[in-house]
Amino acid sequence: MSSLKHEHVEPRAGIEPEFGFDQDLAPSALSRREFMQVSAASIAFATLGACTRAPAEKIVPYRVQPSEIVPGRALHYASASTLDGYATGILVESHEGRPTKIEGNPEHPASLGASSAIEQALLLELYDPRRLRTIQQRGAPASALEPLQALRAAAAVERKGSGVHLILPAQSSPLVVDQLKRLRQRLPELALYFHAPLAPTNAWQGAKLAFGRVLDTRVDLRRANVVLALGADFLARGPAQLALAGAFAERRAPDSPANPMNRLYAVETAPSVTGSTADHRLALAPTQIAAFASALLSAVARGVDGQASAAFATLPTPALSDDAARFLAALSADLLAQRGASAVLAGDEQPPAVHAAAHALNVLLGNTGSVMSHAPPVVFAADDPEFGSLRGLREALAADRVRTLISFESDIAFSDLELRGLLSKAKESLCFALFPTQTAALSSWQIPSAHALETWGDALAFDGTASIVQPLIAPLYGGRTLSEVLAVLLGEEPNSAHDLVKNFWQGRHPDDFGEFWELALARGVVAGTLTDAVIAPLLEPGWFPELASASAGPQGIELNLESDTRVHDGRFGTNSWLLELPCPITKLTWENAAWLAPSLARRLAVEAGDVIRLRAGAQSLEVPALIVPGHADGAISLALGWGRENEAGKPIGVNAFALRAANARTVNVERSGRQAELAITQGSMQLGDLAESILVSSTLSQYRAERPARPIKKQLSLYTSDAPESARQWGMVIDLNACTGCSACVIACQAENNVPSVGKGGVLKHREMHWLRIDRYLIEEGKTERALVQPMACQHCEHAPCEYVCPTAATVHSSDGLNQMIYNRCVGTRFCSNNCPYKVRRFNWFNYHQGERSPRELAENPEVTVRARGVMEKCSYCVQRIRSAENRARVEHRPLRDGDVRTACEQACPTRAISFGDVNDPHSAVARLRQNPRAFEVLAEIGTAPRTRYLMKLTNPNPELT
Amino acid sequence: MSEKARIWAEFPSGAAVLGAARRMRERGHTRLDAYTPYPMPELEEVAELPRPRLLLSLILLGACTGGTLAFLIIWWTAAISYPLNVGGRPLNSFVTDIPILFESSVLGAAVTGFIGMLAFSGLPRLYDPLEQLSGFERTTIDRFWLGLECEPDAREALTSELTELGALSVQREETRA
Amino acid sequence: MTSATAEGSAAAWPAPDRSPAADELALLPKPQTDRALTEQLLDCVLKPPAWLDRAILVTGLGSFVLIAAVTYTLITGIGVWGNNIPVAWAFAITNFVWWIGIGHAGTFISAFLLLFEQKWRTSINRFAEAMTLFAVMQAGLFPLLHMGRAWFFYWLVPYPSTMKVWPQFRSSLTWDVVAVSTYFTVSLLFWYLGLIPDLAALRDYAKEPWRRRLYGIFALGWHGSAATWRRHRIAYGVLAGIAAPLVVSVHSIVSMDFSIGVLPGWHSTIFPPYFVAGAIYSGFALVLTLMIPARYLYRLEHVITRDHLEKMGKMLLVTGTIVTYAYAVEIYCAWSGGDAFDRHMLLHVRPRGPIAPIFWTVIACNCGSPLVLWSRRVRMSAVGLFVVTLAIQLGMWLERFLLIVSSESADFLPANAHYYSPSVIDIALLCGTLSFFTFLFCLFLRFVPFIPLSELKALEFELRGRS
Question: Which of C61, C95, C407, C413 is 20–30 Å from C349 (CA)?
């Protein structure tokens, strides 16, 4: 395999060697040299031989010397994925030069070993068959040379870049930032825009209001006893979500006296992952949240002495509903009791004034400095008030002042409908994109850009820690990297992205660069790049009017446009893993819907599935309605980022950016009379009186009083197995107290185990294939409902009902306690599924795998069988990982240690809710947790003796609110 | 006895053949035989046909064989040849064998019974010398045959007697296979 | 000495009382000669009515629906059916249970009634046995077809395998394989054994040489010597004695496909008797559904008399009552038992859930419709009975559907609650088997004496032969 690390092939005649490496070999064309490599590689490899080429330059594996490459053994490379400019460290598993799985990088501050659904799904994006493959000029194939010349012409120094408009995604890359600064000097008249519809601009402006300068806020939730989320879904959104969720979960353990269980209050409009996890949740319409914030601020200000607070005590307190008032009273008391050990977090969707209020609260409560800290923004040009606005471009286009429009991986036509109409007015437009986006369709040039796993680059984490992005595979379709494009605009010596990155960092670390570089690549983080916190004194509040106007409730139904945890700003709007990932709250797949509170739906006489017409200003949108218990009454929520087109050109969901353009706070609702079928995976969320046998929950105080509440007694059985048992017995424990339901594990499982997606039609027929799903239940709690989540996969029952009904012994028990599924023995009677009380078995109704027809096949894990049509499948406790760990231990002549085997779901989980190991080893974490007084088995009374146990969900309510 | 020949009397109805058979039996004629379109238990009594004990015991044997075979297969495959932990059940879980054991016994019995019945009756056969008797093909429809042995010299007497008893014809069987 | 043996044998074989009861005479109202009976019954075969060939053609074409649906399923995958997770079984297994249940009445009529020396069975038993055979053929189709990889069906059979991969005999599906195949074999043997004498009669009665040759082959050279008749009677009796418990066992095993499961509404010990009763019930209904038109079309009112119909009506009444009782007990057990899931299933999901309409139809058809049979007038009227039997067919099919789908669609975790709706292919398969069944039945009417000739003659002799 070392032949894969070859120096790059000679470019064909007529193509200049510069401008990246051998990018414009068509995927089919093979040089003699490559042919030799390809024929040496595996079958899947050979299907797209020319595409799966190792990068030309030497890349450094994660803590493994390239000399140790063994065919069949996966290597892990550290890299980073960026979203809105913020980096998350990843480790990419590579089989024979083919990335097959993405994990979090334990050393990276934004990951700490965990990963979100989006990082997991990057893999599918890489192999998406819909990616742009060739350079095209108005639909006609073109050589790499022509766009290159176009760029050169546009970047001619004498023109100073006038008429040249450059649109980029948000950037934190030190290299790119440096290039941009130099580009501004070289072409002063070049217009630069950043396209990041979901960048935290409100937070930045909020900081500016509070402190007079744009700052990033960092939170250390391990120190917070009380947390208030003002419309902030910090557990499932934002660049620091994984770190925050981890820290939050550390304080949810009820048993450790050292750090007592924290308490989370959530005030939000639409139910979110954070809101569902909160001990107390208050549903308010957006303006009400602002009102609540200002009321809380004045209440707290009155509670703390000192002249700092005096300014805020005068803040007028808007009228609140009784519930809100009670909530506020208890909350403010709690916050004041926990000064210096609490945190108030405002969500990105909240107006700047609310962020300012949150900052003020944190300062008054003395949290800033202990729990909270501030630092200059890591995203370039974040302090530009115009950041993210494309108004300048619109005006220029309207005035025909745009000579060359260069957009890089920015689908402006999708997220800005006004621009969509104007784009054709640009004389010449070059669109670098991964997919045939709407912008690409409207541009004169379509040029494939390189995927994150194909490029060299660098990026900063939310705390400024730098990572080097290294490619796992040469660009499948000869994609370009931003730094290469900028280099051309800078008219520099042509250079590959690799050299650009390397030279840049060499400039920063001239001495001992060699080992610095090796280490940076190997660890995935550049040591000592964390930006220091700054002390920012609070200004005299001049933002009361803004807060007041934000809280002034306009009449009518308020519109609440939110980011989506799956498709983000639309970048992942065609990624079938994420599209089929059920929404953590509604379990809706393959589209977005308008969320209404049951009470509002009653008032509007709207049923679930009715298509309603939302009218905001000039804009109107038809979208199916979904009735969501726990949603704020006075508002309708809609997720952004949906509405990208599928292969058939049909939109997937509706594009809510249309309404955002109207920039209206309220919306008119009318029924269209049409009905839509919603692909919802979960049958019913009502637990009824079955909680005791399915999902046990309690409150901290109650649990303390009556612990140990529920000893697990071994069910009596007529049968005793006399089959041989090995000393090692695998088992899993899932802590429902830590689980937030973020669903990262679902995609991790899908990626690890080659689980197919079945499409909207499949979900409508209830044929989704996820081996691991997150069940969400609602239980009555006073006037409101509390949401409980429960990851549900095969329970690996010791007395498995599925096993004794299989006529061909296709599912049996292994000696180490696994409930095994033997695919090639299965004839597909489906009796096992009928008899599974948990219904976690999945059936291959059709032949779901596209085989060699699709590059997606390259994403599949060679360690896991691809299931044929007509057989059952289900969670295997990642048996492939168990066996390879056992083999490794055998080879190294050592016993298997606890933690050697980590299932895909366990590894991805940001809150460490899942533990896996040998239940017979008294020192293993699992064995200890199984004895935890909170442990219980689902449907224990059936006598299935499940190997997976759950830890009871506990809440820590404020006595004053119960 | 060997020179004794068998003669066959043809009767138009069950009643007639039954009457004739009774009379002949009283006259001391043994080894009566008869052919009828439908089963006539009385006739069988008169002809003193033995109860087919062998057939019955073979059927019983068939049942036992079927059951035993089934058990051996289940026990050997599940407990000896390839033991597997299936739902924590014992390898040789007899309770769950019962249905199959019963069915297999039934199958054994039924098949033996069917084959036995045919075999003992010499069926299937392609040719029967009796088909030489004129009108014998109506046996299965509405003719009844009574067969008895007699000395060559007593034949005329017997013939006339049978005719009195209502025989339509009395014929001599040429050679009995 | 000879007389002694005569007495001895008489003692061993006491001649049964030969005084025919009035209701038995009613079974064959007017005296007929053997010849007349033969001509009449065999002419049904030798001079078939014109409509029969047309019926064969139509139903034969109809069977292509089945062939098409099966082919499409095998080529594309089970996904072309309406099934899902949790409802992994639906139409296929419903059809299986329904068809096999129907088969049981055939055996019941010929076996049980033979053992109980019910003379009236004579005119209808072959009818019923044929129905059994063809119904079991339909039934057997579905367990094969519902498998995701039907071409590996032989893995359920312990063939000598070098890989040592044996069937898993704790599964009720392997029991099914043995039970159904045994049942089919025994029914076939039983039917054929009874048929041999009549085939012989057909051989001797037919004119055309090809018929004589053809029927001759199947008659196995039968001539009906007393000794053969005796063995025949005994073997037939033994087979009947075997078939009777077999019927009970087979449907008990079928019911275990559900009762060994853990699902609420399945995990119940009353299933075996409950299912057997239901099977006999639906089977008797189908016998009538087929017999009433045939009786009319072949003008056999004096062979299959109103008296037969009346007796069958009584059987429906009895079995229907048993089934009703079973429903009541099932619900009572759930109500009185402590199992929350069971209670939810039987007291809410079925009578009040989305499947409720089906539940109430089942009650109306299976418990309600037979009540009219309390009136003798309805029992005696062919039309009235015919309507009731149709209602019962429908009711019994829906009962199995209800049982399977309701328990699967709302078992334990509320998250899994999903309902089911059939696809076109599902319906095509059901209609296809109906058509194929009728096709086979018409062939049976066309080529085989469908009323046991020799038995009828024997009956005639028993009733009037000596006078």
Answer: C95
Q: Is the pLDDT of residue A940 over 50?
A: yes
Nearest to B84 among A798, A809, A945 (CB): A809
Burial of A529 from C-beta contacts in 10 A (0-12 / 13-18 / 19+) = middle
Is the distance from CB of B46 to CB of B21 less than 8 angstroms? yes
Asked if A45 and A96 count as a contact pair (C-beta separation under 8 A), the reply is yes
Could you tell me the two tokens for C316? 């429906």
For chain A, report the end-to-end CA distance as a whole number of angstroms. Answer: 64
Mean pLDDT within C35-58: 85
Nearest to C240 by CA among C309, C290, C194, C287: C194
Specify the range with the lowest mean pLDDT, choosing from A38-52, C167-181, C446-460: A38-52
**pLDDT digits 0-9 by tens, A551-577:** 886 788 999 999 999 999 999 999 999
Percent of chain C with pLDDT over 90: 52
Token pair belonging to A193:
């825009």
Q: Which residues pair with A787 in a beta bridge?
A: A778
pTM here? 0.88
DSSP A412-467: HHHH-HHHHHHGGGSSEEEEEESS--HHHHHSSEEEEBPPGGG--EEEE-TTS-EE
Contact C247, C111 (CB under 8 A): yes
Q: In the B/C pair of chains, how many CB contacts fall below 8 A?
A: 208
CB within 8 Å: B85 and A809: no
Question: Using one digit for the tens of pLDDT, what is the confidence trace for A186-237?
Answer: 989 889 999 999 999 999 999 999 999 999 999 999 999 999 999 999 999 9
Out of C38, C158, C166, the one facing B142 most closely (by C-beta) is: C38
Task: Give pLDDT, residue C117.
Answer: 75
Question: Which of C81, C85, C258, C349 to mutate to test binding with chain A, by most A CBs within 10 Å of its CB?
Answer: C85
Q: pLDDT digit string (tens) for A68-105? A: 556 667 888 999 999 999 999 999 998 878 899 999 99
- Size of chain B, expressed as the number of residues it contains: 177
* Residue A869 with chain C: CB contacts under 8 Å: 77, 148-149
- Measured in angstroms, the CA of B110 and the nearest CA of chain A are apart by 26
ipTM for the whole complex: 0.89
Q: A581 to chain B nearest CA, in Å? A: 32
Q: Which residues numbered 104-123 in B keep a CB inside 8 Å of some CB on C?
A: 104, 106-107, 109-111, 113-114, 116-118, 120-121, 123
CA distance A774 to A805: 27
CB proximity list for A718: less than 8 A, separation 6 or greater: none
Per-residue pLDDT band for C45 (boundaries 50, 70, 90) equals: confident
CA C385 from centre of chain: 18
Q: Which residues of C335-353 are buried (b: 16+ CB within 10 A; e: fewer)?
A: eeeeeebbbbbbeebbeeb
Q: Does residue C348 sit at the A interface (CB-CB below 8 Å)?
A: no
- Residue B175 phi, psi dihedral angles, 5° rounding: -135, 125
In chain C, positions 136-165, which contact chain A (CB-CB < 8 Å)? 146-150, 152-153, 155-156, 165
Q: Which residue has the tokens 């492939």?
A: A880
| Dist. CA A661–CA A439, nearest whole Å | 17
Select the residue from A716, A719, A831 to test the B interface by mutation, using most B Cβ atoms within 10 A. Answer: A719
- Choose among A70, A139, A189, A79: nearest CA to A466: A79
Q: Which residue's structure tokens are 């990018």?
A: A23
pLDDT band at C26 (very low <50, low <70, confident <90, very high): low
Is A922's pLDDT higher than 70?
yes
Mutate to test the interface with A, among B85, B93, B96 (most CBs of A within 10 A): B85
Residue in chain B closest to A813 (alpha carbons) equals B85
